[in-house]
Amino acid sequence: MYNYLGDNMEYLQYIIIIVLLVVIAIAITKSKKKDFKIEINKLVEYLGGKENIISYAFQKSRFIVNLKNTDVVNKEGIQKMGAQGIVEVDNQLKIILGEDAKQLKKYIDDLM
Fold first, then answer.
1. I need a surface site. Which of 12, 37, 95, 105 has the fewest CB within 10 A?
2. pLDDT tens figures, 23-73
3. 0.70 cut: is pTM over it?
4. From residue 4, how far is each of 1, 12, 16 by CA, in Å?
């Protein structure tokens, strides 16, 4: 004998489980997203502020910045932000940011 109500309850349970899993996945994804505007403001601050930045460019995973004074740079702060490395040559820093470099470019262009 076919139990119409029982079969529908089973489908309803599966739907509820799927919806819960989707909600959890969305919550995890949003919690891992970086707020790049905040990150850029911090990065500019660690570089000594806008007035210390002469020019900047992005090359793949690197953020290359020419500075007036590299002595005021907080390299430790930049590293803690997630930089994979920092190379200093004269008044130029090459900050290796990985895939974040592309996303940060838009925000730094808006800020500067």
1. 12
2. 887 776 665 555 666 678 888 899 999 999 999 888 888 889 999 999 999
3. no
4. 9, 12, 18
